[in-house]
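Two entries, shown back to back:
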Amino acid sequence: MTTCPEKAQATKEKPATGAIVLVGAPNVGKSLLFHRLTGTYATVSNYPGTTIEVAHGVVDLSLLGKGLGDRSYELLDTPGLRSLLPITEEEQITKEILLRDDVAVIVHVVDAKDLERSLALTLQLMELGPPVVLVLNMIDEATKIGLEVDSHALAEKLGIPVVVASALQNRGISELKDILARVLPLAPRPRRPRVFTLDDIIETHRRARALASEVLRHTQTTSRFWSERLSQLTLNPFTGGIMLALVLWGLYEFVGVFGAQIAVGFLENTVFGEYINPWVTQLVQTLLPWAWAHDLLVGEYGIITLGLRYAIAIILPIVTTFFLAFALIEDSGYLPRLAMLIDRLFKGIGLSGRAVIPIVLGFGCDTMATLVTRTLETRREKLIATLLLALAIPCSAQLGVILGLLAGNSLAVGIWAGVIALNFLVIGYLTAKLLPGERSLFYIEIPPLRWPSLSNVLVKTYVRVRWYLGEIVPFFLIASVVIWMGQIIGIFDVLVNALAVVVGAIGLPKETAVAFLFGFFRRDYGAAGLYDLHNAGALSGVTLVVASVTLTLFVPCIAQFMITAKERGWKTAIAMAGFIFPYAFFVGWVVNLVLTTLGVRL
C-alpha cells in the first residue's frame, strides 16, 4: 500500500509498555517535536492537516535515569485535535488513541501564540486520567509578536508540568525529556472515561479564557504589524489574486522551464544520450550474446534505456524542483490563506476552502493527496475531492513534463490550462449537484507568515524525493519488464492497436497509444512517453495540446487507484475510473474538433 511520504518509520528498538502520545491542534509543531524526540521524520509544515496517519517512533530516556533503567518508550504523533468532541475523522482517530489503556503520558503541544484556545483542550485532556505535560511550542514566534507567557504561573494554576519550547530551534527538548523521565515511573492514574457534551466544551473554553488572561501579556511590535499587513493582503480578493498569479508564474518558471526543460534536457540529452545509454548498450551487446537480453536491458523499452532514463533523466529533476518549491510555499504559511481566498469559489463545486490542502498536494502526488482527503469533514466532500484529484489534477512529474513540452508557446499553455480548469469546475459543480449530503462548515487555523526555514525545506524536499524515487524507480523498471514480456507474448501489441483506434479518433498519431498505455502504470510514465514522441517529431502544435489535455484527464495511475479503493471503496474507485476513461477521450475529441475547425495554429 502506498503511504504518505512523510509518515515516520518505527525504529527496531522494542519500546517499554505504555505510549507517550503527542496531541494538539493542527499546525502547532507536533511533527517537528516528534522528530526532535525520536530522530525519525514526520511531516513538518506550516499549514493544517499535515498528519493524516499516526506516526510511530521510539524516544530513548535511558540516559536520564529517574528510575527508568534502560527502557525506551513508544511515541505517537497523532492527527490534529481541537476538542474531545470530535468533528472530523482525524479528530476521532486521535480521541480513540487517547482512550486506550496503554497511554502512559499525554504531551499536549500548543502554539504559544494561541494559548487561550489551546488551554480549553488542555483542561479536557486532564480529565482523561493519564498525566498531562503541556508544551508551549513556537515560543520564539510568540516573543517576536510581543506575547509573553508566565509559564511558572500557568504550571501552578494547572497543576501539571509546563515546558517552554521551540522545536524549530531545538529549544526545550532536553527539559521535556527530563520531565517525561520523572512522570513515566509514577503509578498510573485511574482512567476516567467520559462523554463530553457541547456544554462541557463551552465551559472549558470559559475557564481557558479566564486562565489565559492571568498568564498572558501583550505588547505591540513592528514585526507583528508588517506580518499582519502582509497577511491581510494575501486574503484580499484583488491583492490575493495578484499574489496567487505571481506564485503560479514562479512555479511555472522554476518547475516547467528550469526543471522540465533545462535540467531534463541536460540529463536526457547529455548524460543519458551521450554517455550512459551508448556505454551501457555497447557493454550489454558485448557481454551478452542473447537478443532477448538486449531488448530487455537496452532495447526500445529496455530497463536501462527507458525505465531508468525516464525515472532519473525526466522525472527526478521535475519532482525535485516541484517539491522544493512546494516546501517553500507551505513553510511560509501561505496555503491556509489560499484556502481562505478561494473558499467562495470552492463552495460552488461542493467543497470548502479546507479542500485546497489536498488539491494543492495533488500537484505533488495525487496518491498522497487522496489520503489527505481524510481531513475533509463530510463523505460528500471527500468523494468530490477524490474525483477531481483523479480527473483534473496532474502530479508534479506529469505537470512538469507537460509544461516543459508546451513552454515557449503561451497560447498552447493557455488552452491546456483553460480546458483543465474548466473541466475541474464543471465536473465539480455537476457532482455537487448530483451528490446528496450537507455542505461542510469551513474553519481553518491561520498560522503566522514566516520566512521558510532553509533546513526544514531541504529536509522535506530530500525526504519526499527519496520516497518518490523509492516508488518510481522500481515501478518504472518493473513496467519495462512487463512491456517487454507483453511484446514477447503479443498482449502489448494488441493493447496498443486497440488504443490506437481511440487516439486516432481524436486526431492523434497511433504512436501516442504507447504513451497512454504507459499512463495506466503511472501518469508521469505516460507524460514521459509524450516527451519522447515530441522529441521524435510525432507531436507538435494542435496534436501536442490535444494529447496533453487527454493524458491529464486520463485514468489515475495504479497507485492512486488503489488508494482510492482503500479510502472510498472498490465500487466507487471502479465507477470513477469507468467515468474518467471515456470522458478524457471525449474532451480530447472536442478540443481537437474546435481547434481544427477554427484553424488554430500552435
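entry 2 starts here
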Amino acid sequence: MKKRFFSLMLALSMILSLTTSMDTFALNYQQRAVNEATFETLEDAHANSEAFALSSRLGATPTTATSFPPHPALDDYPEGTTYVYRSENLYGRTEAIRMNTNLLVYTDETFEDKDAAYAYLESLGLIDIIAQATGSITLVTPVNPAAGFGDADQAAYYKLQTAMFSSEYAEFAYFGGFGFRYVIGIGEGATFLNNYVASNVDYVGRNAAMLLVGGSMQSIREVAAPVPVYLVNPGAVAREHYGKANGVNAYKTTGALEVDFNQELPVRQVVSLYTDDVDLKQIVQDAYYGLFIKSMRIPCLFQGLYSASTPYKGYNYDEAPYSLCERHAIIDGKTAEGIYLFERRGDQFKDYVFPRNDIDEYIDTWYEFLPEEVVNHTAPAGSVPLVLALHGNGDDPVQFVDNNGWLNMACENRFAIVAPYFQLLFTMTLDRIPLCKAACAVAHYMLEEYPELDPSRVYVAGYSMGGCATLHAAIEEPGLFAAAAPMSATPYDGTEEQLAQFETLDLPFMFTNSTFDLGGAYNTPAAMYGSRVLSFINLFLGFNEMPVIEEFDADNYPLSGFAGDLYVRKTLNGEFVNHTWYLNNEDGIPMVAMSTTEGLVHMLYPEYGKLGWNFVKHYSRDQETGEIIYDPYA
C-alpha cells in the first residue's frame, strides 16, 4: 500500500509522526486521501467524483463499497456556470470528510475559461486559504449572465446543496461536507444570497457564516435562521434583518468594523464595514479569519423538517436548520488559544492485540491536543488535567473531539486530550478485554510522556461506540480516572475481576443522551428513559455503593422516572432544553448524574462536551488513598 503523508502539512507542529516501525498488525489509519489539487467545471467534477469516492483512504485500492454514484441532482445542472477547486490531500472518505472546509462564492462576473475563473479565486486569496484549511471552493456565476441571478439560480443552488450534503453520493467525498461551509456573495451575488438563500431556512440554516460584499436586500425578505455575517457597505434592511435573525442585543466597534452581537450567544453576530475602498482580498481574509473560523454547523434534528416537498429529500444530513455552534479552529497545527494538535504513530500499544478475522491488530494512531504550556514544558508538574476521548462508530478522532465540544472546552479550560483511533478494534471483535486495557494504556502513556499532566485529574469520555468504550476503560481501571462521562452508550457489564475493584473504589459517572437517541436509550411513548438507560443508573449506583432504584415512576417523574437529589433544567445553545438529575451518596456528593436533551437525534453536539466537562471537573482522585475528592467550586 502506498504511503504518503500530507504534502500540504498545515505546519510541522501539527503532524509529529513517530517513526517507529509498523508491522502488518497495525491499523495504520489515515485521515487523508491522496489527491492532487484540481480545478474543474462542475460538469467535470460530477463525472470524476465516483472514482474518487470509491477509492480507499489512500486512494490506492478499492474499498468494500460497491456504489458511490454521482448525485442525480447534478445531471441537469446548468452547464458553464460553476467551477470547483479542490485542495490536495483532502480529508478522506471516512467521517474525516466532515473536517473539509467548503467555500462557496457567488459572483455576477463571468469568465471566458477555467484559467480566468481560477485567476479570480486566486486574486481573492481563496486558493491560499483553502490550501491551509483543506477542502474545496465552489465558484458560481449566473445561469443567465445578461439577466443576472434569479429563479433558475435558486433551483441550481438547491441541486448543488443536495449533492454536497448527501453522504451516500460521490460529491460529498469529492468536494462536499457540512460542518465548515461558508458562503461569499459579491455584488449581485450578495443580492442573490440576501433575497433567495437567507430567506430559506433549508438553505441559510446550513451555512456556518456568510460574507456579503455590496448588494441589496428586499424589505419583504426575512432571514430564516441565525447566521454570522460580514456585511460590506450594507443597506439598512440587510443589517436590520440579519440582526433580528441573530437576536443581537449589544454593539461594539473594532477599528472600522461595527459589530452587532448576541450577548448570550456571541457567535451570532453581524459585522458591518462601511468603506469607499473595497479591497476584496483583504476583506475575504478578514472575514475568514475574523468570523468564519469561529463558527460551525452541526446536523442534529430530524431529517426533512423543511424539505418534505423537495425533489431530493430524506438523505443523510437533510436536517436543516443545523445547530450553529462556536468553533475553535485549528490553524497551522494549533488553535488561537494555544491548544496544539499532534498526530502520533507508534507501536507502544501492540501488546494489546485485538483478534479480528484471523488478523491481530492494535492501536497505532492517536491524536494529542496539548496546551502550549505542556508543549513548551512551562506548566508546573502535575497541574494539567487529561481527558481520554473515545470516538464513535465511523467518527474520526479529531472530528469527534471538535464536533462533540471537547476542543472548545480545552481551549477555555486548559486541559489536555488524547484521542486514539480504534474503530475496527471495537466493531469487528467480540473480545472487548483488549480494548479495556488498550484505552487505559493510552492514558498511562500520556501521564508518563508529559509530567505536566495531573494523574489525580484523569477523565474518560466518549459518544455512542465511544461511550461504550468509555465504560470499558472505566470498569477496567476505575482507579485511573477521577470521573467518567459515557454519552449515548450501550452497556458494558464488566467481568467479575473488573467489578471486584468497585468494592474498594468509587467512580463518579454522568450518562448523557437525547430524546430521539438510538433505540433503547429513550422510550418516546412512555416519555422517559429506555430500559437500557435505566439499567445504567442502577449499574452506576451499585458501583458507588448507593441504593439502587427499585421502581421507576414515569407518571410522577416524567423523562427520568426518578426524582434525583438535585434537578437542573436549562437551554443549551439557545435551542434545546436539557434536563439533568444528580444522585448523591451518603456524604452528599453527587456520584451519578443522568442528562437528557430534548429534540436531538443521535449525533455529535458541542454542548455535550460542555455538559461532560462541567461534571467531571469537580472530581479528583487522591493518589495515595484512592478516594474521590469533590470540589463544588472547581
